[in-house]
Amino acid sequence: MKIAQISPLYESVPPKLYGGTERVVSYLTEELVKQGHEVTLFASGDSSTSAKLVSHINSALRLNQLVEDPLAHHIVQMQELAERVQEFDVLHFHTDYLHFPLSALLRKPHLTTLHGRLDIPDLQYVYNKFRTQPVVSISDAQRKPLVQANWLDTVYHGLPLDLYRKGDGDGGYVAFIGRISREKRPDRAIEIARRAGVKIKIAAKVDKADEAYFETEIRHLLEQPHVEFIGEIGEDSKGEFLGKAKALLFPIDWPEPFGMVVIEAMACGTPVIAFNHGSVPEIVNKGESGFIVESIDEAVQALENIDLLDRNKVREVFEKRFSARVMAENYVRLYEQLAGRKESFFHTPSKKGNMMEMEK
């Protein structure tokens, strides 16, 4: 198939530093090319891809000090896509709802993967107006705030099988990785490790928006003897960090849409102890790839039993459910069904996740 992947321009594909959406776009694009599809990637000019790259700007917007209005560049990106739309069988957007007025008029099979949280009140106006826009969730839990949206299916994120190797968990510590923020609850992770008598290593960034929270509620906790704060780490260090950990602590306190770090840990054979919010029950195979808990006490008990889980089995679960190959195959299935639909599809919303409706 001839497929257009349309990425946000804030980060390169893959991102140089932080950028979850752009990482997924990269993994998907490379796997689609590997599977023999003709892929064109609309992204920033500093992206690295085996697909055909289309860009009007040399570097990603977030790191470009000359950029004052990011929206201007996304508008140009959409126009470039519109001018080339007849080159493609299907369009795959990763740009939230920015393109909705355009894609509704292009008369070309398309879908949008929604990568973020959807419990923002303003989104109700958007999805009430654009009820026929075909969208894909990254977990069933992510859909809950927008029941009126035209959900095609849920496609879980995936990682290349060779990105991480299974580790032995012999580092003598538990891991917390990601962002220092209130919804990620690093304070819970530190307390769980303290009660279990285990060292914790924290590899996390502090965004500007979270600096006050870090200074007032977290910094003093890092002074405890069982805590080692590493700071943000790159992709080259993540595999070893997670592979040596006894477990990943994922004590979130918000409706997590997916949780990339969870499948990164699983790729390393590292079991996950996660609080029961958002996508967690969908991503963690309870008793196989980790434990799902409701409290700090339950998390401590889970950590005490973590050696009962087989790290080989954790890796097997990752390979079966969360590889880039599986992700790409699931999207190709949607692409083919979209491309085979009648024109009336673009005017009539399908039922939530009803694939039989797609095949009519």
Could you explain how this protein is built, in words?
- The chain is α/β, with parallel strands linked by helices.
- It has 2 domains: 2-158 and 325-353, Rossmann fold (3-Layer(aba) Sandwich), CATH 3.40.50.2000; 173-321, Glycogen Phosphorylase B (Rossmann fold, 3-Layer(aba) Sandwich).
- It is built from 13 helices and 13 strands.
- It has helices at residues 20-34, 70-83, 100-103, 123-129, 186-196, 211-218, 235-243, 260-267, 280-283, 296-304, 311-321, 324-339, 355-359, and strands at 2-6, 38-42, 52-54, 90-93, 110-113, 134-137, 150-154, 173-179, 199-205, 227-229, 248-250, 272-275, 290-293.
- The strands form 3 sheets. Strands 3-2-1-4-5-6-7 form a 7-stranded parallel β-sheet. It has a 3-stranded parallel β-sheet with strand order 8-9-10, covered by helices on one side.
- α8 (260-267) links the parallel β11 and β12 (272-275).
- α1 (20-34) crosses α12 (324-339).
- The longest helix has 16 residues, at 324-339.
- 46% of the residues are buried.
- Residues 342-360 have low confidence and may be disordered.
Question: Which key phrases capture this entry?
Answer:
360 residues; alpha/beta; Rossmann fold; 7-stranded parallel beta sheet; 3-stranded parallel beta sheet; 13 helices; 13 strands; globular; disordered C terminus
